[in-house]
């Protein structure tokens, strides 16, 4: 019996922030995840007064913030020439999350190379070390989304950091769709790092290089628009409604229970013409396990 609160990625509703928050409450969510990278949610655009007003508004809806999304796209933290600015912005998003009552910021960091001695691996490690130390100082987590690499390889990377300030946002569909990794085993492998989850389903149509999907130096930079387009009509993978893909949710939810995960199950829907209907169906799907 799941006891986890259910969240909605507000941006998945495509209604704008305020209407998306109200609709999330109407749909029965306990909390919401919000992109905080650009526009009105960019930390640079939110005054102290605006932050206080937003926190009070969310509380008035009896919602919590499960996490902010601080995904800056591009090549993640692979390019040392832009990392200083990206790290600085990521810190400000962490500050905003804490100020709004959450201690999680999710992101993609780029595909972790297999060779731990490669310059890119070391550049990513250095960036994540700085962000992990900063997040820990706030009692917060910078949570890497699963998908670009296997759970075992991601764990190996995280084990090299001095804190758990960089942890994991577990997305089972990304693993199924891109690396073909088993998300159930992934839960056990990453059990010490999981601080937030996305609930999504999908299938893999063919084997692909994760660097082509998630961006890597020498490859096209990652964008959520490209990922959504590929998930809708590409030849590599498909995002599907919960229960229609290859995520075994019965075993997956059981694994989360067994490791003692009590955090959010946040619904993310990156495709489809009827996101409100799809998200309502996803909530009903999760409720069957409660």
TrEMBL record:
<keyword id="KW-0413">Isomerase</keyword>
<protein>
    <submittedName>
        <fullName>Xylose isomerase</fullName>
    </submittedName>
</protein>
<dbReference type="GO" id="GO:0016853">
    <property type="term" value="F:isomerase activity"/>
</dbReference>
<dbReference type="InterPro" id="IPR013022">
    <property type="entry name" value="Xyl_isomerase-like_TIM-brl"/>
</dbReference>
<dbReference type="InterPro" id="IPR050312">
    <property type="entry name" value="IolE/XylAMocC-like"/>
</dbReference>
<dbReference type="Pfam" id="PF01261">
    <property type="entry name" value="AP_endonuc_2"/>
</dbReference>
<dbReference type="InterPro" id="IPR036237">
    <property type="entry name" value="Xyl_isomerase-like_sf"/>
</dbReference>
<feature type="domain" description="Xylose isomerase-like TIM barrel">
    <location>
        <begin position="22"/>
        <end position="288"/>
    </location>
</feature>
